[in-house]
Amino acid sequence: MAVNNIKPLVSIIIPIYNSSKYIEKLLDSISKQTYKSLEVLLIDDGSKDDSLLLAKEYCSKFRNFKVFTQKHQGVSKARNFGISKANGTWLSFIDSDDELSPLFYERMVNGLKKTNIDMVVCKYTRKKEKLKCSNTFSIIDATEYFQNMMDSKLPKFEGYLWNKLFKKSIVKNNAVAFNEKVLVWEDMLFVEQYLLYSSKVLFLNDILYYYRQNQSSITNNKENIELDGSRVIVCNEIQKISSIFSKLYWQTFRIKIRNIKNIYKKKFKK
């Protein structure tokens, strides 16, 4: 992937922890992206396997790949560090055991050309052979997106990070960050905090992300008492955000009603 010195549009932040089984497949899929204005920030979180060695190999091959190391402090710490190092206008958070369609960033960046888009979302699959493009999209208000996230019957509104692009200026200007005190649902909490400062969300109906279920993931350990504590913390934070969104919703609703009334008043006067 030949890359010049132009500032990258998208910074890809990838926390790595004992990911040697799949990390090469992910990095191969990134190196084959048709869209080239990318920087890849690999944050090794104290891996005990060959993950760091493999990451360094890719950095030696591709100038836009960079690797950083930290003691094992968790995925949220790694992502926050990645944000601090990002040079791109947009942020992408990818899991180290997944893979991308070669068109992932080309299609996502094309979506940014729509007016006032603050977040781009694509579909994902658990079967690699189902990756495909559809050329259809929809745009909704960030407030509506948040409300739909609370409905388990609407899976396309899930709070995953990896099928989205986030505007770095919104993250930086509003101190949106990953909660380093929680072990689960930190991604959902980040998305919901981000939506507070967003206007429009664009949905691509393209299936561009291959999500590989990791059975050794901490989130699959349902017996962990610490996880329950983290869930309580996140639920409390979401409740606060929900209260703010509720006020924003009714403010927006009243403005829309006022505008409609003004339109009909003008028509009536005529």
Automatic annotation (TrEMBL):
InterPro entries: Glyco_trans_2-like (IPR001173), Nucleotide-diphossugar_trans (IPR029044)
Family matches, as SUPFAM superfamilies: Nucleotide-diphospho-sugar transferases
Keywords of the record: Glycosyltransferase, Transferase
Domain of life: Bacteria
An example Gene Ontology molecular-function term: glycosyltransferase activity
Record-linked Gene3D superfamilies: Spore Coat Polysaccharide Biosynthesis Protein SpsA, Chain A (3.90.550.10)
Keyword Transferase included in the entry's annotation: yes
Pfam families given in the database record: Glycos_transf_2
Domain called Glycosyltransferase 2-like: residue spans: 11-130
Key word Glycoprotein present: no
Species this protein is from: Limosilactobacillus reuteri (Lactobacillus reuteri)
Name used for this protein in its record: Glycosyltransferase
